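anyone else get weird line breaks when pasting these?? whatever heres mine. first is seq + tokens for prot A
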Amino acid sequence: MKYSRRRYAFVPALLSAALLVSAYPGAALADGETGVYLDGAQAESYDAALAAAAADPAEHTVTVYSDAETAVRNEFVTGNTVTIRNGDNKATVTQTGQNNISLLIASGQEPTVNLGKEELEATGEETALVFNAGANRSFMELNGGTVNLYNGTVITGGTAARGGGFDAKNNSVLNIYGGKITGGTATGTLGGGGVAVVGNATVNMYGGEITGNSSAESAGGGVSVAETNSEFHMYGGTVSGNDGYDVYVGRGNFYMSGTAYAGEVYLPSDKVINVEGEFDAEGPHAVIEPETYASGQTVAVYADGITPDASDFSLTNEEYSLTADGQSLKLTTELEEYIVASVTYGGETTEYSSLATAIANCPDGGIVTVLEDTQLASAGIRDKSIVITTGDNDVTVTKTPGSSGAMFTTLAKTAGGKTSAIEFRRGGGTLTLSGGGSVRYHSSCAVTARLRMP
């Protein structure tokens, strides 16, 4: 873990705080207060409060009691310790500038910026301070210093080539103790719809939630650990429900322990999940998708003194499992043969230990019979029509925990191919699909699917 050094320097006041803030003598802040306050005195605006705080190398608190707008790029410099926090009711700070980052720590600066209230145990929807970053830039760019995100804060919106929410780089430190990062989008190859970690930066996550973000290049809708020497340490909190992987490990390093849940994690062939401490709950703590599946490939390495446990993680490919080898978890295909499905075509029946494999191998016009309860991450059907049914027993197909997207998808036909169709047909027992996002149809399909439950 990296810790930033705080260097103090005199920063001349560019604007007199007296011109920006008007005090209200003897007015204790009551419930239902409106406006923006700097250290207990009402400011003319949100931007005025931040400008006054940034001009004075001391500790300042900006409290937002009602909706506000920002049209500039508010910067922090060495010596600043600024807290921006919510008041009694929900309030939104909206970035109205066409191409502005809402908050910026410039290169070479070492301030401390706190967002939210350290004392809160949860982020309440009715009292949260929401930062709406707009659609053109990241919410915050960190080129140094330390940012602490606490409960009571929601970061939403933000569209950038990388780091729609936070773009952490240049030896900066982002500590996520609480709050929520959602609705961010990364359009470039480095990803990080919620958070991008690049350039020797460190992100430590102890709590909070990163969800509902996206990466156009599937390079980490939630978090992208993009560049060499960048680090993402998860001690707690949840990263899940993001589009384009929850955590994408690029050239950086990813660490887990404690109560962390990382959702679907993409690992290049030369990268692993580093387990640096004991987990405090039962797994799986992440669903791993390696760049390639190969028996014997290492996907997790445990610190000395911690016993590897295959149940700590699951995989997107059901034909592989995890096995402990020293301080590592490795991929293996040595599965106990357990038949869960069969494919019938042309009068012949073939049995499979994986429903995904059965669907993939089922030819056009074939019948897939689900024989036992099983899990399924995803299965795509292209250029064929198939029937999915049951044997004599009631069976349930459950979506693999942590996997994203639909379980069953009809895909666009290839050139000269045919429109795909799935028919779910009751056999001797009842077929139940569980876990959400069960069926998705491609918009180009003229005939999408037939649901037949006689």
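and prot B, same format (seq, then tokens)
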Amino acid sequence: MTSEADRIRVDVWLWRARFAKTRAVATDLISAGGVRLMRDGQTRRLEKSSATVIAGDVLVFSQPNGLRTVEVLALGARRGPPAEARTLYRDLGAHLHVEPDPLA
């Protein structure tokens, strides 16, 4: 079992990792059903921004250009510069949405 110090709200983590410009944007993304959490072989759609993440979790969420899959490596203590934010996750790949070429 992990302690409270080993957990963080998913909206705060998305903001600290710079996937959301504000916590409100992160909350809207979660409330719209745009975030999935994979933990211990189970996948679930997050419905509340108060859901917590721990190191080792995998998040799949939508971005303007498609889906993003990241593994949570660290929780972070603050919203730092982009270089610091990149240390919080490992990118497992972006599933880009490609618009069909109307000329093809």
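btw re prot B: The first strand starts at residue 8 and ends at 9. The mean pLDDT is 89.
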